[in-house]
């Protein structure tokens, strides 16, 4: 297997879907010029991170998979001959929406979708209001650049999700993400959060012996409640990165600016690392029943 | 809950069980003088790491739980009024041995045992030859300093083990360990291995919102096959450490020398961190059946 060049598009998002998509399109073209065969966009890259508040009007941001956002990306994929990982606020039916990642083949055809399985609901991240839990399980999406284990943001805190993608044959894991700091947190707390986020995803690379890619948005997005509350919004922390199968950081983007990471991945490393660290061999599947419980006590 | 002072005893081991135990006894006494209420020893602290080769004579190192090693530690626990986590090459019956961790209450009574569930079998770590797989599951051991989620070495690469201990109510995770470098590996490879080992365990702290403690042995132990092979033995890499519930490193021991880490842990942090990062709330137990399979394809 030859090295596969991957690109991570880390960007800010404004209120205009059109402008966000045009920017993404320019970055995809730039990545292709730099040799990328796989280009990954961040979570909900076509819109602001509207989940900072619960507002019925925000459902207007949603589209079906056949809608204009994915049409735009399909055209971009075909034009640049790259495989794309995009993200969509998916309108599946009236009253039924998902946070969905879409893989588009370099021919412009949709290769498959993943609907976010683990949903947060925390102050400023009211995702359980907008999205129904994914119902497609943890199935990698086959593409011309490999089987892509696409997961989304909050999934990254769950070793179960990474393991299931690996057991289902993923060649690498890809996490479109939207995570940031609360501006009022202390510098020490911010540092711990960023380190925890990176560490957790590096651990998925190690436990499963594969590359892990995380694409985060960047920059401040003010809270719609700004005028009336002390909540100042979210400072998305960038730091999009690629980890190798021993968890080693291969590339990392800026923490404050838009960035385009283009890196050649040697996916053969999975074979080598798993021979040295054969963790899949020794799982105690006879003793894991408790993982299907909410709690043991 | 008041802070609980914990001690990690990181030491070298020689061929004499008596001398290894005496050294451990001195360290336990020193830890108690420094205020420790819980003292943790490394994996197989009473013997050399005999698993570097497959030799039937090494079964002579084994003892029942009622044998002299645990008698020694029970006396030490009672004398110092500390809870101890010890490790034993357990002889359960003729032809049936385990790699067993033992928790001893400060009264000198055995509080419970854990038999290593995940066993390695790699060059220089022939544990599947010596040990039968543990059959007690992932059950924390109740003690006067909390419910101790005791796991052993190779278990540390398995998010499943950490998760099950947390779901079963562990207050913290404790990994007695024996891991090191092959002397002929490159400096870059050694660095990646050490970082992967630490990262993996930090991730258990993060994913489960609790403290994680790892106690490793230190120093070169030559291979018994040294005279005839190129194998030079294992350089145990020390680096025993404590991570807080966000994965942050609170203390770390030397990478080359014996060391005694004594640190006060604020176990109340688990409540605070799990409120901010409620990962246990959102597990998709309806979609985790695949975790009970060896592989999905």
Question: How would you summarize this macromolecular structure in one to three sentences?
Answer:
2 copies of one chain form a homodimer. By secondary structure, chain A is α/β, with parallel strands linked by helices. In chain A, 25% of the residues lie in helices and 27% in strands.
Structural commentary:
2 copies of one chain form a homodimer. Chain A has a single domain (4-292), classed as 4-Layer Sandwich (Nitrilase/N-carbamoyl-D-aminoacid amidohydrolase). Chain A is 25% helix and 27% strand. Chain A is globular, with a radius of gyration of 18 Å. The first copy, chain A, is built from 6 helices and 15 strands. In chain A, the strands form 3 sheets. In chain A, strands 5-4-3-2-1-15 form a 6-stranded mixed beta sheet. A 6-stranded mixed beta sheet of chain A has the order 6-7-8-10-13-14, with helices on one face. Chain A has 297 residues and is of the alpha/beta class. The mean pLDDT of chain A is 97. Chain A starts with a strand and ends in a 21-residue tail after the last helix. In chain A, helix 1 runs parallel beside helix 2. Chain A has helices at 17-33, 68-80, 127-130, 159-167, 187-208, 269-276, and strands at 4-10, 38-40, 83-93, 96-104, 110-115, 141-143, 146-150, 172-177, 180-181, 211-216, 218-221, 234-237, 241-243, 249-252, 259-265. At the A-B interface, helix 4 and helix 5 of A face helix 4 and helix 5 of B.
